[in-house]
């Protein structure tokens, strides 16, 4: 009868801290996506700084909190923009992308502090994003449009990596989360 879980002041503080960390990173991801974005010539999608922020969140917060922040931040952008139809897919794809980036960045004791390991993590998670949006594009539009979006999604990941790699690696070395 009732909840037998014992809650200490420290665990409440850790929960509150985690909530604040995720909320701040989700807001940063949303802002990075919405403030600075350039529509692709194809008319589908935009080049933005959101993926950079997702990669940074994955390195700073780890796989779970990074995934939640990435999913929420990017989905908010879709919901509040003309891309609302993409929102359910974005929630899953960007959450998975951040989860994979965080899991790989922390593998083998690197803890997100190794540039080359982060590079590897961002490449693999970026490929997952490209594949995810390919399938989402097939559902929302059709196969030819999904194929046509691959170059712009690849450019999006590359731009995100160029910004996030030095930033995330240095922030992780100097900021304790």
Q: Which bin fits the share of residues in helices?
A: over 70%
Q: How many domains?
A: 1
- Proper CATH architecture: Orthogonal Bundle
Q: What does the largest sheet look like?
A: 2 strands, antiparallel
Distance between the termini: 36 Å
Mean model confidence by pLDDT: 91
- Give the strand order of the largest sheet, numbering strands 1, 2, ... along the chain: 1-2
Round the Cα radius of gyration to an integer and report it: 17 Å
Overall geometry comes to globular
What is the CATH topology descriptor? Arp2/3 complex 21 kDa subunit ARPC3
**What's the helix count?**
7
Spans of at least 5 consecutive residues whose pLDDT stays below 50 are none
Organism: Clostridium argentinense CDC 2741
Protein name: ECF-type riboflavin transporter, S component family protein
Pfam families: ECF-ribofla_trS (PF07155)
Transmembrane segments: 20-41, 83-106, 118-141, 147-168
Task: Offer a few descriptive terms.
177 residues, mainly alpha, Arp2/3 complex 21 kDa subunit ARPC3, two-stranded antiparallel sheet
Describe the overall structure:
One of its GO terms (cellular component) is membrane. Pfam families: ECF-ribofla_trS. This is ECF-type riboflavin transporter, S component family protein. Keywords: Membrane, Transmembrane, Transmembrane helix. The structure is a single chain. The chain is mainly α. The protein has one domain (9-174): Arp2/3 complex 21 kDa subunit ARPC3. Helix content is 74%, strand content 3%. It has seven helices and two strands; from the N terminus they run αββαααααα. Helix 2 packs across helix 4 and helix 2 packs parallel to helix 7. The model has no long low-confidence stretch (mean pLDDT 91).
